[in-house]
Recover the amino acids of this structure.
């Protein structure tokens, strides 16, 4: 039998760079066209960008006139202004304090990402960390000079708005989610109305509301400062979104868990606190990370009501008459800062999702 | 029987009011919650009324009929400073709707292309599109808006040395100039033809589905629809005398005359919204396609369907079910994010209402208008998308 059939030709190279290029770039006419289009796109955009950003760029310049002499990017602008962009109008000699605060906040986030620390003591770590940040930023004790929060600014302020926002919105959001799943119609209605109302309007309108309407809501003589008002708006906003994420987790817990807890004779809060929430919150960690990224990005909106965050500090650094017209460089610089924070968090959440996933995937 | 519970079975224990009765507790909790909400509401309202009175701020919506006294940069309907506040707010609303609708359409197209490109077997295309998605999603939208606005207003040349990439298109720091159809009867006919074609396409697709259900005969719906959408406007244009002149922008003195304009604000807002949201839509589309199990592809191929039939008849209908809910929230996001227009000076509803409340001092009314507008838009989009979702949902037997 085998002598009759002719032997087939050996297969074409299946490994090696040539095979890789043929398989990944030129496997069909359509693929060839797509590859050529992409290469053309890269050739059109990359060389001018490199020329602008590296070859013709000024990395050091004493005055802006030096930068304007050639058409490249003026990174010297960043060198001149980075302290202002990062820390705003915080007293110059005291700027190690916001730097330390920013480091503490970042490490709080990093610690919360480690599974080793997913224990009740995480709450304690957060309480200590946030208190330290408060002491460093305000001062007034331990020989630190007092700094008004109207002088805070830049990256630490952005981090404060995001982390305090999510930290305080989290318990509120869990309560709202439990309320929305409640069997008591009045409580359910209150929670549904709150969640849908907040999610239906843009954050800007809440920020406007907190800056314009909150003073009208309060009794005479009682005022809250601008930063706290913005922080309240962010907390209210984040709570509604956290509630929806947590509700997703609650719905994913099988009914048997609820019934099992009931049959043990646990009270409602014991059932939720000991059985349901520990499981539900674990499921929703990846979407919570995405939500934190969204809140971190959304804090940039406070620029519209005049809070001095990273974005506003950057915009203010641009109006210096001695260094005008370098907005592209400045925006690219803070884009890089935002990107580093958001990208590392999103990579982390993707990795976590893989670790937590137990399903079969192909 | 049921009318007399005492007659059969055990006697139900008499009900006593007790804290151990869950129903009693639930009623008490609810009364307490309602009372707390009511108390907070009463506290806020009474404070507000008192504060308004002591500050001599009028309340009510009477200001809407007063003269606005400010100019609005652009809008689909004409607006003069002597018009009323109500008309100003209408212009703002129309501007918001215009940017939202155009943004949704363009972001869906761009996002779908990039989402599919990310799954491409072509390494270069897949890599480029995933770099796009990562960069765009991890930089705040507001920063992107400022960036595009700075690119247009700071780095673009003036009108006299404007970029001229295609005949009739000029890009300068005054915005983007495009040729527009001139004021001719034939172009109105073409527009009419387009609307008629859309209606006809919907009718044909209904009829084709009915016929296929009844006889099993398929009908080339897509080809017919495309022919209608291209053919009818063309027919209208030819009936109108097939005019060839377009209103092409040309330089006169220091600026352009004629043609249609995309102002720098509109162009920056549209670019920012579309580029940002397309990154999210790409992820929605990609995960939707990946959610369809591999067996579905193999089974469809085993049936002998062609590649485009596999996609159109087997994969897409299943992927759409996964895609629709997150897509809805992206459409809602685009609408809500268009409110960032206020930061770069595009006169949307938030921007106009903000000017109004600054001029009249009527903060509460201004913010109520903004919130009412967005709630209405959000609810209508989600009602429509829920209807569509139900329409395509799996019918379980």
């Amino acid at each position: 039998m085998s002598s009759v059939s002719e032997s087939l030709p050996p297969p074409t190279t299946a490994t090696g760079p040539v095979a890789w290029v043929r398989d990944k770039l030129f496997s069909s006419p359509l693929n060839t066209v797509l590859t050529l289009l992409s290469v053309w796109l890269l050739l059109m955009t990359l060389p001018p960008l490199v020329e602008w950003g590296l070859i013709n760029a000024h990395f050091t310049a004493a005055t802006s006139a030096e930068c304007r002499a050639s058409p490249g990017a003026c990174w010297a602008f960043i060198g001149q202004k980075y302290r202002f962009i990062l820390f705003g109008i915080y007293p110059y000699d005291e700027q190690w304090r916001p730097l330390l605060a920013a480091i503490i906040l970042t490490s709080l986030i990093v610690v919360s990402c480690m599974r080793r620390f997913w224990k009740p003591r995480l709450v304690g770590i957060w309480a200590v960390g946030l208190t330290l940040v408060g002491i460093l930023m305000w001062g007034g004790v331990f020989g630190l000079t007092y700094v008004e929060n109207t002088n805070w600014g830049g990256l630490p302020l952005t981090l404060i708005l995001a982390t305090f926002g999510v930290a305080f919105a989290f318990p509120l959001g869990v309560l709202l989610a439990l309320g929305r799943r409640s069997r008591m119609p009045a409580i359910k209605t209150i929670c549904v109305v709150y969640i849908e109302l907040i999610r239906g309007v843009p954050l800007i309108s809440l920020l406007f509301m907190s800056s314009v309407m909150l003073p009208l809501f309060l009794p005479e003589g009682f005022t809250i400062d601008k930063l706290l008002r913005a922080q309240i708006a962010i907390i209210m906003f984040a709570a509604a979104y956290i509630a929806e994420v947590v509700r997703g987790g609650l719905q994913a817990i099988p009914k048997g868990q609820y019934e099992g807890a009931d049959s043990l004779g646990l009270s409602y809060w014991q059932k939720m606190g000991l059985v349901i929430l520990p499981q539900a919150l674990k499921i929703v960690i990846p979407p919570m990370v995405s939500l934190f990224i969204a809140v971190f990005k959304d804090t940039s909106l406070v620029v519209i009501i005049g809070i001095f965050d990273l974005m506003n500090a950057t915009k203010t650094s641009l109006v210096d008459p001695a260094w005008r017209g370098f907005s592209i460089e400045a925006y690219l610089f803070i884009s890089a800062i935002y990107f580093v924070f958001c990208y590392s968090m999103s990579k982390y959440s993707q990795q976590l999702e893989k670790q937590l996933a137990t399903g079969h995937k192909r | 029987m049921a009318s007399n519970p005492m007659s059969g079975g055990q006697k139900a224990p008499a009900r006593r009011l007790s804290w151990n009765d869950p129903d009693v507790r639930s009623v008490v909790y609810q009364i307490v919650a309602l009372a707390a909400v009511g108390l907070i509401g009463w506290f806020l309202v009474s404070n507000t009324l008192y504060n308004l009175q002591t500050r001599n701020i009028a309340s009510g919506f009477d200001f809407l009929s007063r003269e606005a006294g400010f100019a609005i940069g652009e809008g689909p309907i004409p607006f003069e400073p002597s018009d009323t506040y109500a008309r100003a707010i209408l212009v703002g609303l129309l501007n918001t709707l215009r940017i939202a609708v155009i943004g949704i359409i363009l972001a869906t197209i761009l996002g779908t292309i990039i989402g599919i490109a990310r799954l491409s077997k072509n390494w270069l295309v897949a890599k480029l599109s995933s770099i796009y998605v990562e960069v765009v999603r991890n930089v705040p939208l507001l920063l992107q808006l400022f960036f595009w606005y700075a690119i247009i207003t700071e780095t673009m040349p003036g009108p006299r040395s404007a970029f001229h990439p295609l005949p009739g298109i000029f890009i300068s720091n005054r915005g983007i100039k495009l040729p527009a159809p001139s004021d001719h009867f034939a172009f109105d006919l073409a527009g009419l033809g387009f609307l008629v074609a859309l209606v006809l396409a919907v009718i044909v697709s209904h009829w084709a589905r009915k016929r296929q259900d009844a006889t099993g005969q398929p009908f080339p719906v897509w080809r017919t629809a495309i022919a209608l959408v291209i053919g009818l406007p063309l027919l209208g244009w030819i009936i109108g005398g097939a005019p060839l002149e377009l209103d092409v922008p040309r330089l006169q003195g220091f600026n352009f005359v004629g043609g249609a304009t995309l102002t720098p604000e509109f162009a920056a807002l549209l670019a920012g919204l579309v580029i940002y949201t397309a990154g999210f839509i790409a992820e929605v589309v990609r995960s939707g396609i990946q959610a369809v199990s591999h067996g579905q592809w193999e089974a469809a191929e085993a049936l002998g369907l062609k590649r485009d039939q596999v996609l159109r008849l087997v994969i897409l209908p299943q992927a759409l079910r996964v895609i629709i809910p997150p897509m809805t929230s992206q459409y809602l996001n685009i609408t809500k994010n268009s409110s960032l227009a206020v930061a770069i000076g595009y006169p949307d509803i938030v921007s106009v209402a903000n000017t109004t409340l600054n001029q009249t001092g009527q903060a509460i009314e201004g913010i109520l208008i903004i919130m009412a507008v967005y709630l209405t838009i959000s609810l209508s989009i989600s009602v429509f998308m829920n209807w569509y979702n139900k329409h395509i949902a799996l019918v379980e037997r």
